[in-house]
Specification:
Largest sheet of chain B: 5 strands, mixed
CATH class of the largest domain in chain B: Alpha Beta
Shape of chain A: globular
Helix content of chain A: 25-40%
Helix content of chain B: 10-25%
Order of helices and strands of chain B: EEHEEEHHEHEEHEEEEHEEHEHE
Structural class of chain B: alpha+beta
Oligomer: heterodimer
Number of strands of chain B: 16
Distance between the termini of chain A: 48 Å
Number of strands of chain A: 21
Radius of gyration of chain A: 24 Å
Shape of chain B: elongated
CATH class of the largest domain in chain A: Alpha Beta
Structural class of chain A: alpha/beta
Radius of gyration of chain B: 28 Å
Number of helices of chain A: 22
Strand content of chain B: 15-25%
Largest interface: A-B, 146 and 111 residues
CATH topology of the largest domain in chain B: Alpha-Beta Plaits
Number of helices of chain B: 8
Distance between the termini of chain B: 56 Å
């Protein structure tokens, strides 16, 4: 996030796109709703009628995957009306002419045709966003989990730059990060192209620094990204994997391909707290510790590094994650893995990660966490980014063209499926909490009353949802939260593994999967059908509800 | 500048704040049951009454802003007598099962009755009797213990912006309840439990913490393990049994303050789940079987070394975890880069 979470309360306009904030980030959602109660305007761009959409001053239920056209259309209107920040563009950006040339073609009538949004709403959204100084953009995976994810993000940057809405308090571009420490995992260099602190792996200075620091020559070649790992495993080029705390079989797109990858490996080690779907493929499983059993730090969306503290001992023989890796390194005869505790590791992180250099456990304790960049011990941390100047001087605007999603609906697969989270669960872990699971014990696919009527369905019925890649059985919830012709499911349930339906189509730059668009068909099924023995078994513990 | 005097202590304020907050600045805690600094002013419990020189009327300090020259008294015998009477009225229509109530030790009503020496109710007469609502997994709602402070109504409306509760009825018949008196369920309630934290009595109780005395639990402050918002809260630990039994908010959390969602507040039973892995496993004869750490580590080290030797460092890859700590992630990337010799490490940031 370029800004901090609590800046939401001082924002005059919230532009929320591709984010069901009140379910996926409930506390940030609360702040947004509180801001609206205090008078902030709210624009929500989402094909679903989410809780925020119902509260919005303007809800734009665009066609899934037409985000690029919508943003281009807004920029077109902003330029035509002369609402752009001319001085800001002149002083702080580059690439404006190319952008203006591209959006020229995105006239309101064409954009309205592609997105399904009336021209007057496009105009109103452009006007509201451009003419409000404290206007913040908030987005999540509805923007990135598309084959055009990277260009969607660049286009939001174009919108903010054209109107001069970045580099200030209460404005900016704010991706709400999905996991507790996805920001930190990136910061730490758990990425195939960067060392800790986003230093590129092919950068000669970084190679020299890390080769000296680790006492061994660094590999200058980019590593594999997750989807490439899966392909390489199937092709036999990747022979072994070490998986710590992830469950790609359940959470990556096109689950059947991932399963094939896992079974193709010569050796798979999984470090987990539960017997995950991925761990079932492992040769070795290490029992690890959960967050309540360890000391350390997480880095939140707003770049705030905060302490995690040990409350209880791990169960049985389970050990700390870093400890297991250190013991494995030592078993392989490697030096440099004799850390005594988490704080000692953090001291090494400070030495290798410039934006963390000024942080110590003592400061994190005393100052209630610190927001990077925090380069020195006297630096107070950074509340919002890009004040006055961008890294590298000018922010470059990169024009983006609209492209159709990788998969479109047709006669055989007439319904568009989107996936995401629901309030009561978080990915897969919360299923192990009996309390949380009892609130939402099973998948309830959202379908529109029109489809319910077409297929003769009633609330609580079971349907089979099939895509070109697989099929799952689920209960349904009939609701106008989804538009006619669309349905929505979550990925929390191993009984209804929705990623058997999603496609391995990726954004070309980040290789992020297109979780948000799959063409599917549905059919009503009777839970007593013999063919369904397998699925019915999955629902077995809910028997009392179906009888 | 606004200069006021509270119980003889002088205070200068830059802008007008309410007298209850002003008193805190000079170290005076005025008793109250319906006030919370995060919520709008209700002035319903009347316990925060004060005397202001020059005014005949007794005022509620939560709803009066400091004005230059004010001389305020917070603890006169007249005020103490009135507070005693107010407390007496409250407990006269309140169950006296304090001996077994799970709220003991963190009940504001009990604390104030103790402070003011209100031992037994003296207004004997009709009492309200409701059916206890505990059909949901998160809380027990016992309206007999409700003192109608309205904090749950306001926190749900103003902070959670959901509006599950509202006052209903008038006078003795008035209640704080849900639409159509439905029991709490996920269709009308987001189950964040913020009302439970706000409730000054045993009217709303966290089911997870039932059966534990608050003084038996140790609080450990930590950061939530779910979404990327970065909420802080206190894990409540039953130390004797090495078990996290629940979660309570910590007000100085920099991002969330006292706000929490259903996951943050009610997830903790997964920590001690019986399904947790407790021993290393090695695949033997096609089945994963328990093994010693020594065996699991040396087997993995050997296989990794063999594969690296036979097929090169780039034939090995790792998935790191956005759920683990920075320290865990740092060590795994160091292991892959320095020991294996590959940059093939990634995590779910892209998936």
């Amino acid at each position: 996030m370029s800004n901090s979470v609590n800046e939401i309360l001082g924002t005059d306009l919230l532009f929320v796109i591709g984010s069901n904030t009140t379910e996926a980030h409930p506390i940030i959602g609360n702040k947004m709703k509180q801001a609206v109660l205090k008078g902030a305007k709210l624009i929500v761009v989402d094909p679903r009628q989410t809780e925020l959409a119902r509260m919005a001053d303007l809800h734009l239920p665009l066609e899934s995957g037409s985000d690029a056209a919508l943003i281009n259309g807004m920029i077109h209107i902003i330029l035509r009306e002369g609402w752009h920040a001319k001085e800001y563009i002149e002083e702080r950006t580059s690439g404006f002419e190319e952008l203006a040339e591209t959006v020229e073609r995105y006239t309101p009538d064409i954009v309205s045709e592609i997105t399904g949004i009336p021209e007057k709403d496009l105009y109103e959204a452009a006007r509201m966003y451009a003419q409000t100084a404290k206007a913040g953009i908030y987005y999540t995976l509805g923007i990135t989990e598309h084959t055009t994810g990277t260009s969607n993000v660049m286009n939001l940057a174009n919108l903010a730059l054209v109107t001069g809405h970045i580099g200030y308090e209460n404005a900016g571009i704010n991706p709400l990060r999905g996991q507790n420490n996805v920001q930190g995992a990136c910061d730490m260099g758990a990425l195939p192209n960067t060392y800790p602190g986003y230093q590129r792996v092919e950068n000669e200075r970084a190679i020299k620094f890390f080769s000296d620091f680790y006492g061994t020559a660094m590999n200058p070649k980019d590593g594999l990204r997750i989807p490439e790992m899966m392909d390489a495993a199937v092709e036999g080029k990747l022979r072994a994997m070490f998986v710590m705390g992830e469950d790609p079989v359940l959470s990556d797109p096109d689950a059947n391909h991932v399963k094939k990858a896992m079974s193709s490996l010569d050796f798979l080690a999984v470090q987990e707290i539960f017997m995950s779907e991925t761990a079932k493929f492992a040769d070795v499983v290490f029992p690890a510790s959960c967050y309540a059993e360890k000391d350390g730090t997480f880095t939140a969306s707003e770049r705030r590094v905060q302490r995690v503290r040990k409350a209880v001992n791990p169960p049985g023989e389970a050990r700390l994650d870093w400890q297991i890796i250190c013991q494995l390194a030592q078993a392989m005869g490697a030096p440099g893995f004799d850390f005594r505790d988490a704080e000692e590791i953090f001291e090494e992180i400070r030495g290798t990660t410039p934006s963390y250099r000024g942080m110590t456990y003592k400061r994190l304790e005393e100052e209630n966490g610190l927001q990077w960049p925090c380069p020195t011990e006297s630096h107070p941390g950074t509340k919002f980014l890009h004040k006055g100047v961008f890294p590298g001087g000018r922010a470059r605007m990169i024009p983006v063209e609209y492209e159709e999603p990788a998969e479109l609906i047709n006669e055989d697969y007439p319904i568009l499926l989107s996936t995401g989270r629901k309030l009561g669960h978080y990915n897969v872990t919360t299923r192990y909490s009996r309390l949380l699971d009892s609130i939402n014990p099973y998948e309830e696919a959202e379908i529109n009353p029109r489809e319910a009527e077409d297929y003769g369905l009633q609330a609580g019925d079971l349907i089979r949802v099939s895509s070109r890649r697989g099929s799952v059985v689920t209960r349904i919830d009939i609701t106008d939260r989804v538009k006619p012709g669309m349905m929505f499911m979550t990925f929390h349930y191993r009984e209804t593994p929705v990623n058997e339906l999603t496609q391995a189509a990726y954004d070309p730059i980040t290789l992020t999967g297109e979780y948000k668009i799959s063409a599917v068909r549905i059919e009503k099924v009777d839970w007593k059908d013999e063919d369904l023995a397998d699925e019915v078994h999955r629902f077995a513990r809910l028997d009392h509800l179906v009888k | 500048m606004i200069n006021i005097t509270i119980d003889g202590r002088p205070l200068s304020l830059e802008k007008p704040i309410n007298l209850l907050e002003a008193a805190k600045l000079v170290g005076i805690e005025i008793p109250h049951l319906c006030y919370n600094e995060c919520l709008s002013i209700f002035a319903g419990c009347r316990l925060c009454i004060v005397e202001i020189e020059g005014r005949n009327k007794i005022e509620t300090s939560c709803s009066v802003l400091a004005k230059d020259g004010m001389v305020v008294h917070t603890n006169t015998e007249r005020l103490r007598a009135l507070r005693r009477d107010l407390l007496d009225l409250l407990i006269s229509n309140h169950p006296t099962d304090c001996l077994t109530c799970d709220k003991v030790g963190s009940c504001d009503l009990q604390e104030l009755c103790y402070e003011y020496g209100v031992k037994t109710p003296s207004y004997i007469g009709a009492q309200t009797h409701f059916t206890i609502d505990d059909l949901n997994p998160i809380m027990i709602r016992d309206q007999d213990k409700c003192i109608k402070c309205g904090k749950c109504v306001r926190v749900c409306k103003e902070i959670q912006v959901t509006g599950t509760y509202e006052f209903s009825g008038r006078g003795f018949e008035s209640t704080v309840t849900t639409a159509f008196d439905q029991p709490i369920n996920k269709d009308i309630c987001r189950m964040c439990g913020q009302c439970i934290s706000m409730c000054p009595t045993g009217a709303l109780q966290n089911k997870q913490l039932v059966g534990y005395r608050p003084w038996e639990l140790e609080k450990v402050r930590t950061t939530c393990p779910f979404c990327g918002t970065g909420c802080n809260f206190d894990l409540n630990v039953d130390v004797k049994n090495n078990k996290v039994v629940g979660v309570t908010p910590c007000a100085d959390a920099p991002i969330n303050g006292t706000e929490m969602c259903v996951k943050g507040r009610f997830h903790t039973d997964f920590i001690s789940s019986e399904e947790r892995l407790t021993t290393p496993l090695i695949r033997k004869d096609g089945e994963l079987q328990p093994a010693s750490w020594e065996e699991a580590l040396s087997y993995t080290a050997r296989r990794m070394a063999e594969i690296k030797a036979d097929h090169g460092p780039d034939s090995i890859a790792a998935l790191s975890s956005a759920r683990c700590t920075n320290e865990d992630n740092y060590v795994l990337q160091k292991f892959m880069r320095a020991v294996i010799g590959t940059n093939s490490i990634d995590h779910c940031a892209r998936t």
